[in-house]
Structure formats: C-alpha cells, structure tokens
Write a structure and sequence with these properties.
The protein is mainly beta. It has one domain. The protein contains 4 helices and 15 strands. It has a 15-stranded mixed β-sheet with strand order 8-7-6-5-4-3-2-1-15-14-13-12-11-10-9, covered by helices on one side. A hairpin with a 4-residue loop joins β10 and β11. It is globular and about 55 Å long.
C-alpha cells in the first residue's frame, strides 16, 4: 500500500503530460455522404430466417432518394407478426426528411402514407380502406426517416461515449418520436474490418445493438441480445427469401 501511495503522484503527473494515452477513445471518420447503392439483409429469429430487407440509396436533386423494401413473418412471446412494406424517402444532404410515401400491410391491414416536411411539422395523408385522412405531426426540428438512423452518427462524426438525440418518423404509429443513439465503441474483430458499435432506444425496454462499417453500411443489428438479428447478406441470398415469400413483396 505504501508503494502505491508513493507512486500515485507520478502516475497522475504522467496522465497530465500524456492525457491522450490514457483517456482518448478512437474516433471514427466523419462521412460526407451516405453509402450509395443497394444492400440486402436477412431477418432471423432464433437463427431461423423469417424476413428480409432491401435498402437502396441513390443521389437525387438536392439530396438523396432512399428506397426500403421489407417483409417479415414471425411470432415473439406469443404475438404473431406479419408485415410488409415499400417505402420511398427523399432527404436533404444531412439526411433530414423532405418527403415520403409508404405502402404497407401490417397483420392483414393495408395502409398507404404520403407526406412532406413543412415549417410546422410533417404533413401526412393516411389512406385506410379507401378513406384518406390528413394529419399534421408537429415538429420544430429536423425529422429523420428510420432508414438513416444507423447512418446518422457517422454523418455527424464523434467518438465512443457520444450520444445523439433525433426526431424520427415512425411510419407504423404515424407519429414523430424521439430516438437516442449512443456510440458504444469502435471494434476491430480479428480478421475483420473495423465497425462502429451503436445502440438506440427505438424498442422500449429492449436492447437494440447495431454494428456499422466506416462507410455507413449496417453489418448487423441485434434485438434483445440476439433474439432477432438483421444481418447483411449478398443480393442472391436476400432475393431468395423474397422470391419464396411473394406475399411479402409490396411492389
């Protein structure tokens, strides 16, 4: 114990002289734009594929166009889930929402959404069973579509321990919600490329971990410690599930 007390002043002096050695966490490069191109993902429950997701980002006038197709059939804790959707978003260079349209069927209920960002918030037309209603989702700040939540931290830049709070359009609930995105760390598995490990609180009371590469591509997403996993796959693998489950394809 005496030796420890004798060395302590020198230890803290070392930290003052070389603070980065002790406390600095590796930062990840800030992206100038999102990853352009098409990406496919498998959705699995208990290691069995139950759905798919396709994400396509392309440059558009004054920003980007984002297309998302997804379909899933599963049962979790006694609750069944049968959902499919086709989504199109136009976003600004910072990924904030400009306009969108959605064609979705959730547990047999078809819904169509169409909307745009205004000074007062997100103006939405909701069509159910041939009847259309107009809604204004009030928001005083930028709103982001779900498809960019994993990319957002890399567009902002930062380091482990940093967190971001954004407003996100929840297309299922048709409302604007707050989402906290936390950067857990930069991980470099043996033989693999470095990834940024992030978490968000999109699912209440459930951990949602995501790993994104330094180009902004989602590699893996794990809900409830691996109960439900979304994993990047090649185009052939993604299309195979879509082909064998045509009822999950909206367009």
């Amino acid at each position: 114990m005496k030796h420890f007390l004798r060395l302590t002043p020198y230890f803290f002096a070392f930290l003052l002289l070389f603070p980065n050695f002790a406390v600095a966490a590796p930062a990840f490069p800030r992206l100038a734009k999102p990853p352009i191109g098409e990406r496919w993902f498998s959705i699995s429950k208990d290691k069995e594929q139950t759905g798919y997701n396709r994400l396509e980002i392309s440059e558009a006038a004054g920003g980007y166009e984002i297309i998302v197709e997804s379909g899933v059939k599963m049962s979790v804790f006694g609750f069944s889930r049968d959902a499919s959707s086709w989504e199109r978003y136009l976003v600004n260079p910072d990924l904030s929402l400009r306009s969108f349209e959605v064609d979705e069927v959730i547990d047999g209920k078809p819904v169509k959404l169409k909307g745009e960002m205004t000074a007062a918030g997100v103006r939405v037309s909701v069509t159910v069973a041939g009847k259309t209603k107009e809604k204004l989702l009030k928001a005083k700040v930028a709103v982001y579509p779900p498809a960019v939540v994993n990319i957002y931290p890399l567009m902002q830049g930062g380091e482990p321990g940093k967190s971001f709070k954004v407003k996100m359009l929840d297309i299922e609930a048709v409302k604007v919600i707050g989402v906290k995105i936390s950067v857990i760390g930069v991980e470099a598995p043996a033989g693999g490329a470095a990834t940024v490990h992030i978490q968000n609180d999109f699912y209440t009371f459930v951990d949602n971990d995501i790993w994104v590469d330094h180009s902004g591509n989602t590699i893996k997403e794990s809900v409830r410690h691996g109960l439900i996993v979304t994993q990047a796959v090649d185009r052939e693998t993604g299309r195979k599930f879509q082909t064998t489950h045509p009822e999950l394809k909206r367009r």
